[in-house]
Amino acid sequence: MPERERGEPSQGPGAKAVPPGSGWPEDPATSATPVADSAADVHELAAGAKSIEELAALESVCRACPRLVQWREQVAVEKRRSFQSETYWGRPVPGWGVERPSMLILGLAPAAHGGNRTGRIFTGDRSGDVLFASLWRCGLASQPTSVTAGDGQHLISTRMTAAVHCAPPDNKPTVAERDACAPWLAAELAALRPDLRVIVCLGHFAWQALWPQLIMVGVSVPRPRPVFGHGAEAAMPGDWRLTVLGCYHPSQQNTFTGKVTDGMLDAVFGRARELAGAAQARR
């Protein structure tokens, strides 16, 4: 395992990424967390993670994909004008939520000025505004908004993760980057298996990324492979009582054009909650 690379300080004009263990809210890593510097390292570290907490820590310091490392840290320095005064997370964004969930929400990757800024998937961007509002209405989140890590938002019976943990240029990871990140997803699925009953895939990319990793952890999947669509529903035929649901991604393009509406999201998450038997939120 290569010696870990130390991040630069999180303050000042030259800051690239928040150093692990430096006090960022909900940071799962410490300065001693091993760093994956290659796809082989990812495979080794993911396979050796002993808990979902350790897995999140390992995800959050990964440097296996040079293009993604360069981009996420460049964005953290250049910043969007409206966030110039803020420190950006600038690291991979790990899975978060309940440690033993009945539902998993799988997205594509963090947004450059959303999760890459806040350190939490879907937190602080327009897609997240729509998503968290729907989760709250469906009893799966403690509040209808989520702006920063440590803002009091809690998921209920639910966890979120992404097929790729670093913000990619143009929201388009390469096949090699997707595959390098895949062992993190496989390890997360394996860790969640005892309680997980529903996986909601936000968009076609997440839907396509999921099936090989289900097979990797020994899940029998339908043949032919189910086709993605909004509201698509596929029950796994094996002994794991698991259902996969498709949902259009709540991106600005999809919401502004009406391809996905609040009612459409609520229908998917209402169905997911029904299948998972998730607890009703306390409002």
Describe the 3D structure.
There is one protein chain. This protein is α/β, with parallel strands linked by helices. It has a single domain (39-276), classed as 3-Layer(aba) Sandwich (Uracil-DNA Glycosylase, subunit E), CATH 3.40.470.10. It is 35% helix and 9% strand. It has helices at residues 39-48, 52-59, 66-78, 115-118, 126-137, 175-192, 204-216, 252-256, 262-276; strands spanning 96-97, 103-107, 158-162, 198-202, 233-235, 243-247. A 6-stranded mixed sheet has the order 1-3-2-4-6-5, sandwiched between helices. Helix 1 (39-48) runs parallel beside helix 6 and helix 6 (175-192) crosses helix 7 (204-216). It is globular, with a radius of gyration of 18 Å. Mean pLDDT is 92; it is low at 1-14 and 279-283.
Structure summary:
This protein has 283 residues and is α/β, with parallel strands linked by helices. It has a single domain, classed as Uracil-DNA glycosylase-like domain (Uracil-DNA Glycosylase, subunit E, 3-Layer(aba) Sandwich).
Keywords:
283 residues, alpha/beta, Uracil-DNA Glycosylase, subunit E, 6-stranded mixed β-sheet, disordered N terminus, disordered C terminus
From the 3D structure, determine the CATH topology: Uracil-DNA Glycosylase, subunit E
Tell me the name of the CATH homologous superfamily: Uracil-DNA glycosylase-like domain
Number of structural units classed as domains: 1
How many alpha or pi helices?
9
As a whole number of angstroms, the C-alpha radius of gyration is 18 Å
On the 0 to 100 scale, the average pLDDT is 92
Strand order of the largest sheet: 1-3-2-4-6-5
In CATH terms, what is the architecture? 3-Layer(aba) Sandwich
What is the string of SSEs from the N terminus onward? HHHEEHHEHEHEEHH
- The N- and C-terminal alpha carbons lie at a distance of 47 Å
What is the structural class? Answer: alpha/beta
User: What's the CATH C level?
Assistant: Alpha Beta
* Helix content estimate: 25-40%
Choose one word for the global shape: globular
